[in-house]
């Protein structure tokens, strides 16, 4: 009888083991394919340009301190450790971080910054003066493409050893001894659950937690627990402890940020503390490890007291295990939780990320951008972006308060590097947060008087006109398609014979239309296209006063050849794309094809410097009396649009204000958009345009009343730039005859 029972028992066991073996085989395939493949579906990270600090540039000590704090540097008694800074009454020192970008590896460096007469001086520790110093690129956001997770990937060697030790001490002391499951932990959990009559405790190792996060749901059933155990054994069979702990560090769920899940200690460190994980202190490591037990329960942003208590519990475990002395424990539990300022929230970059996604969509599919953890390096300047966003929000709010009829006023701003054409900042809304409608790209509106500098460039290009040339500002009539069009000046007056530089600086419409008629309206249209207008349009007389409709981004591209004096024509957004192994995948180079000489463009730009001095941008000159810059205001019919272009030594900036419903406003380019530019420029330490002109152009003093060179003693004179060969051939010494 026993033999029969034993025989059938063996047969039954073998038969029953077949589906069990098949199930284990299937689980093994799941474990290996997920772990060997793309373990973490990681969105591409988008980075700013490095912040280049240049000796001799205008800087305030407080501005540099604010910048260092915003980029995650901590101030202490000295700056010996990477990521730390120190300050005295007159100086700032910092140990700048190393970084890798598409240009290679940049070593960490200690630098001392002092401020002499409002100018920055950079020195090495030995006192030698340094030309420049660089603050590493900042991560400004992700390209998800449908992914809603936020991660940063660490290799095993990049994991801070104290963090690893604390995690193992608190979550799984037997991690290096067990094979994926802890029999003592399971036994303890069984006793607790049996005692309470329900499932109160699990006996999960770090390996089991990783399996649960990577492969399984969070349901609490014994079937799921059995699956977890088997998969944990398989994971330990196939992979080393180093691979498993590395995966855990990158996979662990630590917080929910709206619709995005925060995974991994590196991403959590940046979010909560604004610093790389390797720069955290023991108490900060303890806080993050404490959150593993309950990410929502112990979130320091939502429940700071509960999070602090949990952190102190972790520190107590370290003390009890002999990893912390009593004195260190007492000191650390008294430390307040210092979270990163919420001003660092990256929503300010939402409009810029639109441009990044638009450019990359031509070369990378959405799935690649959403999952491959590419590193995208852009030209955004975090100081300029912040200053532009704040200026737009602040000035629109002030205008709305001054005139309630302006409620709902919207705006957009595009800031480019004057020389390279790299886009440094984009603002697509006057609201505080990213709205989803990017007016910098999508608000296509008449550009008004911003068309005038390109029009005057057309005249200068003929060689028959200079800035001194006289033209009559008089009323004109045009028959356009059977309709009579009679342009008017803003003040409804005529101003007689004026010089070209006066007509543009004071934005005289009648003189401008007269000039366009003389050189030919089609020629003006050709110039606009040559400067970069790609949108189709039909040229007619009203185009000479800005009936042309463009977005702020397109206006910025139109002005780039003039602002750069021919050094750049296209706007740049993405510089390069690298993979997670720092291998360059693509570098974005731009064409520079401007069919105008550097001399002509420089002379045009120089003429625009008259607008702040004598024209419609005098308020900006009053705000910056010692700054030499170029500008142009623009206002469209019925004051539906307020425009401003400002060009300093560093930036070319376009500002637009208007209503989405295209209704008349009570502001002009001078009283609206100009205010935004002034606010922005006050916060970016502006530098003047250079005095020098390129080969083929020169600046001369000319009599205002007669086309002759003026001696220094002459009072009736004006300084104007000329294309060589078009300057006056005669001179005046301004002596009175006796």
From TrEMBL:
Keywords (A to Z) from UniProt: Antibiotic resistance, Carboxypeptidase, Cell membrane, Cell shape, Cell wall biogenesis/degradation, Glycosyltransferase, Hydrolase, Membrane, Multifunctional enzyme, Peptidoglycan synthesis, Protease, Transferase, Transmembrane, Transmembrane helix
Domain Penicillin-binding protein transpeptidase: 411-647
Pfam families associated with the record: Transgly, Transpeptidase, UB2H
Gene3D superfamilies: Biosynthetic peptidoglycan transglycosylase-like, DD-peptidase/beta-lactamase superfamily, Penicillin-binding protein 1b domain
Domain named Bifunctional transglycosylase second: residues: 53-133
Annotated coiled-coil segments of the chain: none
Cross-referenced InterPro entries: Beta-lactam/transpept-like, Glyco_trans_51, Glycosyltr_51/Transpeptidase, Lysozyme-like_dom_sf, PBP_1b, PBP_transglycosylase, PCN-bd_Tpept, UB2H
Residue ranges constituting the Glycosyl transferase family domain according to the UniProt record: 147-316
TM spans (from-to): 5-26
SUPFAM superfamilies: beta-lactamase/transpeptidase-like (SSF56601), Lysozyme-like (SSF53955)
Localization per record: Cell membrane
Annotated catalysed reactions: Preferential cleavage: (Ac)2-L-Lys-D-Ala-|-D-Ala. Also transpeptidation of peptidyl-alanyl moieties that are N-acyl substituents of D-alanine; [GlcNAc-(1->4)-Mur2Ac(oyl-L-Ala-gamma-D-Glu-L-Lys-D-Ala-D-Ala)](n)-di-trans,octa-cis-undecaprenyl diphosphate + beta-D-GlcNAc-(1->4)-Mur2Ac(oyl-L-Ala-gamma-D-Glu-L-Lys-D-Ala-D-Ala)-di-trans,octa-cis-undecaprenyl diphosphate = [GlcNAc-(1->4)-Mur2Ac(oyl-L-Ala-gamma-D-Glu-L-Lys-D-Ala-D-Ala)](n+1)-di-trans,octa-cis-undecaprenyl diphosphate + di-trans,octa-cis-undecaprenyl diphosphate + H(+)
Pathway: Cell wall biogenesis; peptidoglycan biosynthesis
Primary role: Cell wall formation. Synthesis of cross-linked peptidoglycan from the lipid intermediates. The enzyme has a penicillin-insensitive transglycosylase N-terminal domain (formation of linear glycan strands) and a penicillin-sensitive transpeptidase C-terminal domain (cross-linking of the peptide subunits).
Record family assignment: In the N-terminal section; belongs to the glycosyltransferase 51 family.
PANTHER family xrefs: BINDING PROTEIN TRANSPEPTIDASE, PUTATIVE-RELATED, PENICILLIN-BINDING PROTEIN 1B
Protein name according to UniProt: Penicillin-binding protein 1B
Source organism (scientific name): Marinomonas maritima
